[in-house]
Write a structure and sequence with these properties.
By secondary structure, the chain is mainly alpha-helical. 71% of the residues lie in helices and 4% in strands. The protein has six helices and two strands, in the order βααβαααα. Helix 3 packs antiparallel against helix 4 and helix 4 runs antiparallel to helix 6.
Length: 139
């Protein structure tokens, strides 16, 4: 058996890129709303989980737009590597890496997340969505 030489990729059409881009925008929009609500200690974790989803969707949209495919595997670090291979997307890859570092805690953890940590994660998602918008306009 020979090892894989690269990530598993899934082809994307322009319409699919737009669907992922819209998902990124909406996940971020809701993350911001939840982040601003301090009435429940569980909400920062919800905001951070939505920020992760926004970042992954934005990454998919950028990869689909530029490469016409996106990473398909379970290892989200592959998405970081693919995103970093795109010219001008180094900062986006860094933001995605930072979001993914807390993915497990935000989505599956059993402790509350601080409001400060959630705010940081929402900022990374904002950078990814802003970068996505620039990429979508530039090509």
């Amino acid at each position: 058996m020979t090892p894989r030489s690269g990530p598993r990729m899934q082809p994307m059409t322009a319409a699919e890129v737009q669907v992922r881009a819209e998902a990124a925008r909406k996940f971020l929009e809701v993350a911001r709303m939840v982040e601003d609500d301090t009435s429940d200690p569980a909400l920062p974790r919800v905001a951070s989980a939505l920020a992760v989803l926004a970042g992954i969707a934005a990454s998919d949209a950028v990869c689909g737009h530029v490469l016409h495919e996106r990473p398909q595997g379970q290892d989200h670090q592959e998405a970081v590597r693919v995103l970093s291979s795109i010219r001008g997307a180094d900062e986006l890859a860094t933001s995605l890496r930072r979001l993914l570092a807390d993915k497990t805690t935000s989505q599956y953890g059993t402790t509350y997340m601080t409001a400060q940590k959630a705010a940081s994660m929402v900022r990374y998602a904002e950078k990814l969505v802003e970068g996505m918008e620039q990429q979508l306009r530039s090509r």
